[in-house]
Design goal:
The protein has one domain: Alpha-Beta Complex (Spore Coat Polysaccharide Biosynthesis Protein SpsA, Chain A), CATH 3.90.550. It has eight helices and ten strands. Helix 3 packs across helix 5.
């Protein structure tokens, strides 16, 4: 398998450089490249309007995207483009605020690779936590499992993306209206149904490297309002996921 890794890193995020170097070391001997992230602070209004169109898809995403969220999406599209243009069978796409347990992650990656090739539209997520609800176990090796979750996990910190999956994700996101991980959940539109590696061996280091570069603190009333809107949206997404073939309640527990 022709496999490489891309670490998405924002150049001005100087507090993360040591973490990026450590992650680079942890992923080796796999070929690794630092992929310059798109900077939301540098995006012009014209650049944003070219790719971002609110209320494009249903269920309607209830929040306007911040420039940082748009830039994050564009950074992942940049990684997918590299997979296609280089003719890779697949690539690990990693954000720069994670760390890994080499043993657990290594086991998960080996099992994930066994389920992935360039011609199939395969994405396998290495989440910060196991998927919620129930799901179907697709493959297992000891304690490591590849699971088809009932509802696709949120989060885009780490995933294995095949070439065919990258093509489909690019085609379905030339214009977008929601964060990249929320689009992952809409497999009935993208043609890519993400699986999950459990346990993943991936952990967040966001708090230790300066916090998120996307979200900013909000007043209490706004936080309450957003939580209500988020709950309604996620309920709609779960219903659509079940309707379009997400793992059912009677499937083997993940």
């Amino acid at each position: 398998m022709k496999l490489e890794a891309f670490i998405i890193h924002l150049q001005r995020a100087e507090g993360r450089r040591a973490q990026v170097s450590e992650l680079f070391r942890q992923i080796a001997p796999l070929p690794v490249e630092i992929l310059d992230a798109v900077d939301g602070m540098s995006l012009t209004r014209e650049e944003i309007e070219h790719v971002y169109r609110p209320e494009l898809l249903k269920p309607l995403y209830p929040f306007a995207l911040r420039p940082a969220e748009i830039a994050c999406f564009l950074s992942h599209r940049k990684a997918w483009r590299q997979i296609v243009d280089r003719g890779l069978d697949a690539a690990l796409v990693l954000e720069d605020d994670i760390s890994i347990d080499p043993v657990i992650f290594g086991n998960a990656l080996r099992l994930a690779q066994s389920r992935c090739d360039g011609s199939s539209a395969t994405m396998i997520q290495f989440g910060l936590r196991p998927p919620r609800g129930r799901g179907t176990v697709i493959a297992s090796d000891g304690e490591t499992r590849i699971v088809c979750p009932q509802t696709v996990m949120l989060g885009a910190q780490a995933q294995l993306v095949s070439r065919e999956a990258a093509k489909r994700l690019l085609a379905s996101s030339e214009i977008f209206d929601r964060p990249v991980d929320v689009l992952f959940q809409m497999f009935w539109l993208t043609g890519v149904h993400p699986l999950a590696a459990v346990p993943s061996g991936v952990f967040s280091r966001s708090a230790k490297v300066g916090g998120t570069t996307i979200h900013a603190p909000k007043p209490l009333l706004e936080r309450v309002y957003r939580e209500w809107q988020r709950y309604r949206f996620r309920s709609q997404t779960r219903k659509l996921s079940r309707l379009h073939g997400g793992a059912g309640e009677t499937d083997k527990a993940a």
